[in-house]
Write a structure and sequence with these properties.
The complex is a heterodimer of chains A (401) and B (249). Chain A has 14 helices and 13 strands. Chain A has 401 residues and is an alpha+beta fold. Chain A has two domains: 177 residues, no CATH class; 198 residues, no CATH class. Chain A starts with a helix and ends in a 12-residue tail after the last helix. Chain B has eight helices and nine strands. The longest helix of chain B is centred in the last third of the chain and has 17 residues. In chain B, 31% of the residues lie in helices and 22% in strands. The two termini of chain B are 25 Å apart. The relative contact order of chain B is 0.20. With 249 residues, chain B is an alpha/beta fold. In chain B, the strands form two sheets. In chain B, strands 6-7-8-3-9 form a five-stranded parallel beta sheet, sandwiched between helices. Chain B has a four-stranded antiparallel beta sheet with strand order 2-1-4-5, with helices on one face. Classes of the chains: A alpha+beta (401), B alpha/beta (249). Chains A and B meet through helix 1, helix 11 and helix 12 of A and helix 1, helix 2 and helix 3 of B.
Chain lengths: 401, 249
Amino acid sequence: MSLWTIVLRSLRQHALSTVITAFSIALAGGLLMAVWVVKTEAQRNFSQVNAGFDAVLGPRSSKLQLVLNSIFHMEASPGLLSPKDVDDIRKHPAVQHAIPIAVGDNYYGYRIVGTLTNMLTDVEYTPGKRYRFQAGRVFDPALREAVVGSFVAQKLGLKVGGTFQPFHGLNFDPKSQHQETYVVVGVLEPSNTPTDRVIWIPVTGVQLMGGHDAALSSQVSAVLIKLRGGAQTGFRLDTMYNKQGDRLTFAWPIDTVMTQLFDKIGWFDKILALVAYLVALVAAGSILASIYNSMNERRRDIAILRALGARRGTIFGTIVLESATIATLGMVAAFVVYAAIVGTAAAIIRSQTGVELNAMAFHPVMIWATGGMIALGALAGVVPAWKAYRTPVAENLVPVS
Amino acid sequence: MALLEINGLKKTFIAPDGARQMVVDVPSFQLEARQQVALAGQSGSGKTTFLNLIAGILAPDSGSIRLDGREMSALGEAERDRVRALSIGYIFQTFNLLHGFTVLENVLLGMTFGPGADRAFAESLLKRVGLEDRLHHRPRQLSTGQQQRVAVARALANRPKLVLADEPTGNLDFRNATEALRLVREACSENGAALLLVSHDREVLGQFETQLDLAQINRAAQTEVASAALRPTAEPQRGSAHLGTGGVS
């Protein structure tokens, strides 16, 4: 019979407190890992999302707002660009692609974006990957046709051949429906990018939509830019638009803009991590309290083991091993908690942004959080183990004559 | 050489009033290998303390306990634990079985800290005490007599040279007590272990050829225990187990 068997029997004897304590460890461990992975995965994924472009040119505004509006299809549009500004950047020798987008309408809350056909046919949204159609084709720029992202198609039940009437504005208002009817001619395959949440129509469709200001019908919201050459080119355009000019904003490079966003909300991560650490400490404290409180009822068992020849050190080690085992059981369950939290968070992030987090991706936090929690559990066992170590044998072996 | 030699053994405790009270004061005592001796001791005579000192559970204030040639009082606590795990079996009045473990596991525990678990030997011991069909029962699922038999098997599990029995029949009815005592003595004989049993039960004491009055051995008990009240059922033998010089005042 090994110490391990003794520990398992003890855990069985105190099954209820073992389960409750292990559950608190599971919550703490799961939360700790989830906070870490969601933060890291979100930062990594959001920083990588650039829709295949290096920069965004838009009206004077913050770079972050421009990127969120043009790449992530979130936030309000900061304003409009004149045809001349669009023309200038398209003709710039350092620009490979310059694709205008126009926003201002939605369909049941999902953003309608006007663009050119090459946005959906030529652009590699990630190196080597172009948008693919699971059904239909790209819209005809001269007709009221639309291509819908996979997430929108799924959520709204839009299929090729279906029709819809856009609503005015970026937020859904049932009273402000346009008269124009669009026909769905294509449905995109999932790309796990914000594109999945967008309804694409010809740029002129947005510009000429009834109710829009006719005087602004040639303007666009932003231009998505793919540069030729490296950072030098981007740096020159950055200087030209942002430092020498004062009408437009050139958001470049996109990943740096997004990294700055995460830097700005870094304090939130720290608070979440702090909460997770505190929960871990509380869970370790619950192990300590659980075992320590059971020491009175265990004194006789400890005395019997000592009378059978168990050394003080053996008793000490048994209690620490028991404590570490509870933490280990908790950390096994923590992966279930982790999967539930990250799975839910990933689903919410996907539905809100279109960005897919890999909930099952391995992350080093899984190793160090597991090891750390087990070590913390073992450490929590030291106090009751010390009490067990000091348990006097003779006076706890009844009866004493 | 005697298996157990005790000389000048003293142990005191602090009484609730703060006074230091002598509980054990044994000038001399010896027990030969394989010998079976009954010590008559009333409640308060220091018999459990005496056995705990021999087992190394308690450390004496002074004196010598030599078990199989090893001076117990010179050993550190860990070494005394080791000697106890390897050489001593202990049967308690309340059996002190671990209720979270099965019958078989309780016996295996008796080996774990000593020579190591030997499942076949543990099963043979339990078969010897008539519990071969109760191996996987928990102590609470057994009768008192059956629990006592588990305690006997556990005490013999590490093939001890000395078995200490503290009122081993104290919680049993007459029939079970007689059976248990026979079992303890036979099992010790079969396993070559000496037996030192303490009891206040005259029926139990009467079954031993060698009886000693603890009050005669333990001077600390002489003022509290009227040894004369014990009816001698046989003349104590002063051969291989005997009081040393000065053992009786």
